Amino acid sequence: MSGSRFEEKKRALDSNVQTLEEVQPIILKRVRRDSGPSAVGENILTVKSINLLKGKEEINKKSHHTDEFEYDELIVRRGQSFHIKLELSRPFNPEADKLLLEMHLGPKPQFGKGTLAIVRLVQELDPKSWSMKIVKVSDRVLTLKVNSSPEAPIGRYQLIVKSLTLNEEFRTKHNPDDDIYILFNPWCKADTVYMEDEERRKEYVLNDTGKLYRGMQRWIGASDWNFGQFDQGILEACFFLLDKGKMPHAGRGDPISMVRVVSAMINSADDDGVLVGNWSGDYSDGITPMAWGGSVEILLGYYSTGGEPVSFGQCWVFSGLTTTVLRCFGIPTRSVTNFDSAHDTDVSLSMDTYYDEDMEEIRDLNSDSVCISKIQILWTVETSRYSNCWPFDPQLPPPVATYLYVHTNHFLFSKGTYCCGPASLRAIKNGLVFLKYDAPFIFAEVNCDRIYWQRKADGTFEKFDVVKNAVGHKISTKAVGSDEREDITHLYKYQEGNFIRYYKDFGNKKLKVGFSTIFLHSSEEERISVQTACQYGTKPNLYRKDDAANDVTADIKAEDKIQIGSDVMLKISLGNRSMDKRTVSLFVQSSAILYTGVNKGTFKREQEEIVLGPCEVKEMVKMLKFEEYDDHLVEHGSFMFTILGRVKETKQVFVKQDHACLSSSSLKIMILGQAEVDREVQAKFEFTNSQTRRIRNVQLRIEGPGLQKPKTIYIGDIRGNQTMSHTEMIIPSKPGARKLIATLDSHQLITEVQGFANVYVK
Questions:
Q1: What gap in Å lies between CA 318 and CA 316, rounded to an integer?
Q2: How many other CB atoms are found less than 10 A from the CB of residue 322?
Q3: Hey, which bits of 468-598 come out as E strands?
Q4: What pLDDT shows up at residue 595?
Q5: Which one of 346, 431, 475, 524 has the fewest beta carbons within 10 angstroms of its own beta carbon?
Q6: Residue ranges at the known binding site for Ca(2+)
């Protein structure tokens, strides 16, 4: 958004603030308290000027950790004292003069609702309520130390100073330059968002860049994201979001309620929220989700148009936006990636896949779970991004400090709106799905079992396989204080069953069955958690019958890190754990899948009969040629490989699946010279098109807090096997360690192309 457009929006905001004075006049006046002559006359105490000490190097912003905000207004955190200076018309006389502050929030501030605070002089500050005391007197200048309530609603407050001398009163006129933003305070023990660890506060509140993880559990890639919560205009955009969500100002002191509103307003599904979700692959009416490198351009675009949703986004974009908004408000938040994330549509708390008598997938039952429908049966598995935040959860007994889960995609219709969470991770881990909010859906995303069903001749379905580790793998977030990945799966679920090589004893001989891994028992806590949750689902009897033992094992594994244009190698293993021969009818299928996990159709299917001798293991290699999958590529370049089998002798039926993701070349960024504040420095960007096809209408998008406002540069076409090189001048605005992020945007790009450079600015 251009500077002129932002200034127009800011003037409009100031105009709205002035309109509030028509509702409740705040004017310079004298009020006579009796009908007799004034006892003070012209000696009434008046305020000549107000100094909020709001410079970036002054005490208030430094002590409140708000000095990174690109704002002239004073920004402080609730429950913590700040200083102001008042220049008076004469020296203050504590015997005759009374002084107080009024803090007005919203269009109709009311004392009983906490949106009007009356701040009085006291001898000692009360840490639990609004209060102030004089800390320095210098002739006609008073220095006041003001403490706000740790439960105060957050927002932009109007400051009014009031003096009373005997029978006469003075009130300052509202000046927008003296408005004070009050935010949540994770440094304050009395605030419900308090976080004890300083390094975590720096990461989850103050860090304005981060990493979002992608790919699959065996190959985890990382994308850098510019949260940009301190950028000019973002704070107003975030509060505008609450206004659009019609959240009462009186309710803005409760972080849990606020998180739920943000969850609903980040997506545009039913309330014209910020971002339009799109998983269709057609982005002709907007921006490709993979092109975004940060939240700033999206939020400012939404704010500058008065709330017109921005197109388009997917999971990681929703997560990045949510983290920006909540960090801006002062709620410790991190973006999290869950690999293999289930989406429940029938609240069964199991993930059900259906096949017919011939082991063909029944697509009418295994339908697209991204569509909002209460009657669909199947869920799909995907890589899901969401956010964790850190308010106190009143539903749980001590110890109460726990991360809360919040998801902002439009997957779930919850209590009349499309939102998800917040829900306690402790509740999710223990299967307490009856607690608020949306715990069944969230539990299933990370810790349900995958149940395979086959239709019998009479039309009923029989369960033939249960995979107990189907979802919730390598749950990842950026580590505190570094760019490393932190695995936080243990916060969501107890340890699942281990995967080890299987051996069977035959006298002194141990026979290995399977080239890779066989599932052993889950931990007792994990099974209790799953079965507890399922009791509250639509299939409470699912685990009341023990599964029959099967003696043929199977596994399939696709290779990792496959470059677009390369062939894909599949390794298949079949093992017979019995002392008898086994005959297996084996089907091998290759399918293209969307980012959401939805199967776009099988494009290759092979069938063969395999005979296994007693205790025999057979390993096979299958190749998927580039020519076979080239015409079936979908966005993100994901495939699902499935082996299905039926054992002739025992009637055992099995199914195993694995995924593969294709990758493109990376975007390289080089800083040519020493970066200094307010001085130009060159940044060079390079990308090699490893495909034979031409990539048309390529745009380069760059941004970085303190380095570069979001900017789009048209590059044009990049021919097959050609290297693109572009140089751009940037002018850093802040010193210290910074990060420059760039992405390539083209409707012909199958996978994300992004790069970053760490820059130290003098």
A1: 5
A2: 29
A3: 473-478, 485-487, 499-506, 509-519, 552-558, 562-563, 568-576, 582-593
A4: 66
A5: 524
A6: 447, 449, 496, 526
Say how far apart CA 619 and CA 236 lie, in whole Å.
Answer: 61
DSSP three-state, residue 264: helix
pTM, two decimals, is 0.78
**Domains of the chain in sequence order:** 3-183 (2.60.40.10), 198-478 (3.90.260.10), 548-663 (2.60.40.10), 668-761 (2.60.40.10)
Identify the bridge partners of residue 405 per DSSP, sorted by sequence position: 388, 423
Neighbour-count burial of 206, counting CB atoms closer than 10 A to its CB (0-12 exposed, 13-18 middle, 19+ buried): middle
Sequence-separated contacts (24+) of 715-723 with Cβ below 8 Å: 715/744, 718/687, 718/689, 718/694, 719/689, 719/694, 720/689, 720/691, 720/692, 720/693, 720/694, 721/688, 721/689, 721/690, 721/691, 721/692, 722/688, 722/689, 723/686, 723/687, 723/688, 723/689
Helices (H), 623-689: 626-629
For the stretch 566-602, pLDDT in tens is 889 999 999 999 999 999 999 999 988 876 666 777 8
Instruction: Examine the pLDDT at 464 and tell me if it is beyond 50.
Output: yes
pLDDT of residue 202: 96
Please give the sequence-ordered ranges of beta strands (E in DSSP) within 527-673, or none if there are none. 552-558, 562-563, 568-576, 582-593, 599-612, 617-624, 638-647, 653-663, 668-672
Question: Which residue ranges are tagged as binding site?
Answer: 447, 449, 496, 526
